[in-house]
């Protein structure tokens, strides 16, 4: 997410630390979504200082295959974590006897490691 360090500098320390303790490691979007649940007024700072009006526009997860003949192939893209995670669970159940799994890339291009 652009300006992440600047955005974090506007957060209340105690809430930021609480979210970090609860979610780390996580994506910036997931962190910010949780932060906004605890400090809804922060949305005004995002809007006024960073022109971010809808955090959901910053959430996107791309699922790709790991292993097998389609290793690295993009399988699906989702706009929210719940749908992405459901896809992963279904894929792994369907392929439980295969030597394949999936990986998840967030909107910033970082692999989500702890899902």
What attributes does this structure have?
alpha+beta; 115 residues; single chain; 3 strands; 45% helix; 15% strand; elongated; 2 domains
Write the SSE topology.
Blueprint: H1 4-10, H2 13-23, H3 28-38, H4 42-50, E1 61-66, E2 74-78, H5 81-94, E3 101-106
Antiparallel strand pairs: 1-2, 1-3
How would you describe this structure to a colleague?
The two termini are 20 Å apart. The chain has a 3-stranded antiparallel β-sheet with strand order 2-1-3, covered by helices on one side. The chain has 2 domains: 4-57, no CATH class; 60-106. It has 115 residues and is α+β, with helices and mostly antiparallel strands. It has helices spanning 4-10, 13-23, 28-38, 42-50, 81-94; strands at residues 61-66, 74-78, 101-106. The longest helix is centred in the C-terminal third of the chain and has 14 residues, at 81-94. The model has no long low-confidence stretch (mean pLDDT 86). It contains 5 helices and 3 strands.
Query: Main β-sheet, in a few words?
Result: 3 strands, antiparallel
User: H/E order of the elements?
Assistant: HHHHEEHE
| Overall radius of gyration | 16 Å
Report the sheet-strand fraction: 5-15%
Helix content: 40-55%
Question: How many domains comprise the coordinates?
Answer: 2
Distance between the termini: 20 Å
